[in-house]
């Protein structure tokens, strides 16, 4: 008697087809997963940086007084009175103007120091920043980093030196409004404003009352507020000459064209957020519109939707 044993298996063609299908699926899903991951990393880096800056503001309020007033005093006040910035052996300030404010702020950042020996000045910040990004082989992103830029004054934070820290972030400053700009992931991509390059502003109690809470600039209830750091729309401020327009030069009025008109930007996600809200004890879901005009819900309201840098 003979017994036939039928063998089961896959042919070479079937295996190749399967591998091809798996490759196609991977080609579709892996870039999306990687993109989502990059978006979440940027979100974490932003939140970490903003939290650190807000903590510095709270410390300055305790140690220096109103953080906004202190920042102004560093730039415009008496060095002997305000003791801003690094001190020499003789007890005098090492820096003046915006560099004094930059030095004072960076003293609160772990590892905060000038990027190199040539960057700790008020001169040629835009050109130096372009070289830093270029030397790192990084995408140059913002228009003011482009090599063919004719108007180099478009860089907002351009007169307080270039600084770095233990996390490799890049910090620059603007003296007119004490703006602080930071690339939250150093020279790494995408190097875009309000995506990985952000602006923060130390606000006085009066500025908080007028610009954030819409109070009368002639009778602001400053006792209700305290100075603090807020985020500003760097992309909007970079358009034109708005960055150098201080509240004082514009009559200290919201909507007058001061750079502060583009603060309070809030966190990018919350700036466009669709927040849950309650009505009659029932939780409902609202929607919002992103800076790019996209309808946002809590299901798609992630950093990746906001930045859209693919």
Order of helices and strands: HHHHEHEEEEHEHHEEEEH
Shape verdict: globular
Overall radius of gyration: 25 Å
Please count the helical segments: 9
Stretches where pLDDT is under 50 for at least 5 consecutive residues are 147-153
Protein structure class:
alpha+beta
N- and C-termini, Cα separation: 69 Å
Tally of DSSP β-strands: 10
| Largest sheet geometry | 6 strands, antiparallel
Helix content: 25-40%
Strand order of the largest sheet: 1-2-3-4-5-6
Mean pLDDT: 76
Q: What share of residues are in beta strands?
A: 5-15%
Task: Provide an overview of this structure.
The protein has 310 residues and is α+β, with helices and mostly antiparallel strands. The protein is 35% helix and 13% strand. The strands form three sheets. A six-stranded antiparallel β-sheet has the order 1-2-3-4-5-6. Helix 2 crosses helix 4. It is globular. The chain starts with 11 loop residues before the first helix and ends with a helix. The relative contact order is 0.11.
Structural descriptors:
310 residues, globular, 6-stranded antiparallel beta sheet, 13% strand, two-stranded antiparallel ribbon, alpha+beta, 9 helices, 35% helix
Give me a quick take on this structure.
By secondary structure, this protein is α+β, with helices and mostly antiparallel strands.
